[in-house]
Amino acid sequence: MKLLAIDTSSHICAACVYEADTNEIMAQESRDIGRGHAEVLMTLVENVLAVSKTSYQDLARIGVTIGPGSFTGVRVGMSVARGLGLSLDIPVLGVSTLDALEYMALAKDTSLSQLVTLLDAKRGEAYCKFSNFDTMASQVFTLTYDEAVKLLEEDNHHACGSGVNAISEFIGKPISYVHLNPTAEIGVVAELASKMSNPAMPPEPLYLRSPDAKIQAGFALERA
Predict the structure, then answer these.
(1) Are residue 109 and residue 130 in the same domain, yes or no?
(2) Residue 147 sits in a domain of what CATH number?
(3) Which of 91, 98, 100, 160 could form a disulfide with 184 if both were Cys (CB 3.0 to 4.6 A apart)?
(4) CB neighbour list of residue 107: distance below 8 Å, 6 or more residues apart
(5) How many CB atoms lie within 10 A of CB 212?
(6) 163-171 vs 145-153: helix axis angle to the nearest 10?
(7) How large is the greatest C-alpha to C-alpha distance in the chain, in angstroms?
(8) pTM for this prediction
(9) What order do you get walking across the sheet with 92-96 strand by strand?
């Protein structure tokens, strides 16, 4: 089963073609572009399809990151994924960026019993996933840096993700971490999507707070 994976949740724009039957990344491309995912993404998709000698009709499903992360980036990736899924009549699977980062950490250290996955959300906040692998319990929420520090201090939790650096700078000392990635490797997104059951409905963005951009009421026009 061939799968196209897309990630536009951070400053990185990435795509890959993945063969689920052999757990093989057939082609992948990742660019650190900052912004402008809409201008770059389809070029990456075409590139990985060409390198892997895969046509759109060969694809059995599409995996895409749903956030949390860049509001605009997530919407670009999901719009492309859902558009392709609709036109090709194949399922689209949504992968949480926090789940993918956690998966990468577990691959690096299989002995972890608890893990705090942190994504820098700016404005003194972090998107967080706390997992206890002994009880198989997990929670996803938004924390202030102060709250994140308190959580990390409890039982010396291990941490991963881009929020680790931001919180280390906030408290003025390093934090023990497994990795500092702002987003998971695109092959991880593909692997997770390949293991998911087909959804009844297309995925929706995972937003843990309201967008920074607000409608400017002073420029609104009165309704006729």
Answers:
(1) yes
(2) 3.30.420
(3) 100
(4) 188
(5) 9
(6) 90
(7) 64
(8) 0.89
(9) 24-32, 12-19, 2-7, 59-67, 92-96
Looking at the domain assignment, is residue 209 inside a domain?
no
Domain identity same for 17 and 61: yes
Listing DSSP states for 7-70 in one string gives: E-SSSEEEEEEEETTTTEEEEEEEEE-SS-HHHHHHHHHHHHHHHTT--GGGEEEEEEEEESS-
Residue of 9, 16, 14, 65 whose CA lies nearest to 182? 9
* pLDDT tens column, 94-148: 999 999 999 999 999 989 899 999 999 988 999 999 999 888 889 999 999 999 9
* In-domain check, residue 205: no
Please check whether residues 47 and 109 belong to one and the same domain. no
Strands 59-67 and 2-7: parallel
Range of the domain at 142: 98-171
Residue 191: how many CB atoms within 10 A of its CB?
A: 22
Helices marked H in 138-223: 145-153, 163-171, 186-195
Question: Would you say residue 206 lies in a domain?
Answer: no
Distances (CA, A) of 115 to 98, 128, 155, 224: 11, 10, 11, 54
User: What is the rounded distance in angstroms from the CA atom of residue 173 to the CA atom of residue 151?
Assistant: 16
Same domain, 113 and 153: yes
Instruction: Give the total number of structural domains in the chain.
Output: 2
**Looking at residue 200, what is its pLDDT?**
84
- 158 and 126 in a single domain? The answer is yes
